[in-house]
Design a protein that fits this description.
Blueprint: E1 3-8, H1 13-24, E2 28-34, H2 44-48, E3 52-54, H3 57-60, E4 68-71, H4 75-88, E5 92-94, H5 101-111, E6 116-118, H6 124-140, E7 145-152, H7 162-175, E8 182-183, E9 198-204, E10 210-218, E11 221-229, H8 233-246, E12 254-255, H9 257-262
Parallel strand pairs: 1-2, 1-4, 2-3, 4-5, 5-6, 6-12, 7-9, 8-9
Antiparallel strand pairs: 7-10, 10-11
Helix pairs in contact: 1-8, 4-5, 6-7
């Protein structure tokens, strides 16, 4: 039986890509698409094909029991989605970035009794790199400084990107550091680089989907690991893979792409 999918923000870059791929998949059914009222007209094509179109998730969820909700919108909107999905028993897959610590704590609370999946990056490649970074960092040791550069399109609101912070986590852990040791601003600083820090710099411009490079700079050599996302389909396919995976899980905690890859 095909799995039903609900897509939030379906008129946006990611939402429209996810909705299209869900419609094309043999094992999925696009049950509903949602947008803010002022953007509803952009979903006319879905409505014509028989997909439920709405601006109110509270009316959609009761009509789509068991459907997996996929949300790549904004932190505040994703929290509204998560609360509604938890109340109705629908699993939710979140690709939104920029959550506050308070938001993350609430998602943890909701996940005790509902199915919640959250990842700052749904790419298989990014998540494989995350597996490699702890070993590489440990083997190179303290003689190597670690820096990162991330590049995204000119409409991205958060910096550093959620993916950059995601990639930083295994490096920080391997070095015994915390997020407080991330340096995102060296402007007008007249002092040498601190040894116990990781620098993350952000570039914004054009329509760049996403480029992340981790630099290991040591005595006499430099190692660079770069991931380039060529299309948003990469992330959309990852989100749909996550939707298929989480539909058969049990509540208890917030799941992520590492859980999918290691299952």
């Amino acid at each position: 039986m095909p799995l039903s999918i609900i897509v939030m923000g379906a008129a946006g870059r990611m939402g429209s890509t996810i909705a299209r791929l869900a419609e094309e998949a043999d094992d999925l059914v696009l049950a509903a698409v949602l947008e803010r009222p002022e953007n509803i007209d952009g979903l006319a094509g879905f409505k014509a094909s028989g997909v439920m179109v709405s601006g109110d998730i509270s009316t959609v969820l009761p009509a789509c029991p068991g459907a997996v909700v996929i949300d790549f919108t904004s932190p505040e909107a994703s929290m509204v989605t998560s609360r509604a999905a938890a109340a109705c028993g629908n699993p939710v897959v979140i690709g939104t970035t920029g959550f506050s610590e308070q938001h993350l704590a609430e998602l943890d609370d909701l996940a005790r009794d509902s199915l919640i999946f959250r990842s700052a990056n749904m790419s298989v490649g990014i998540n494989v790199i995350m597996d490699l970074l702890p070993r590489l960092t440990a083997m190179l040791g303290d003689a190597y400084d670690v820096e990162m550069m991330e590049i995204h399109h000119n409409q991205k609101k958060d910096a550093p990107s959620g993916t950059a912070l995601l990639l930083a986590e295994p490096v920080l852990e391997a070095k015994g550091l915390t997020r407080a040791d991330i340096n995102t601003n060296r402007f007008d600083v007249r002092e040498p680089r601190r040894h116990a820090e990781i620098g993350i710099q952000s570039l914004r411009g054009g329509d760049v989907v996403g480029v992340h490079t981790i630099y290991y700079m040591g005595p006499g050599e430099r190692i660079e690991i770069t991931h380039q996302a060529h299309s948003r389909e990469n992330f959309a396919n990852g989100a749909l893979r996550a939707a298929r995976w989480i539909s058969s899980r049990k509540p208890g905690r917030v799941y992520n792409m590492q859980d999918v890859l290691h299952d």
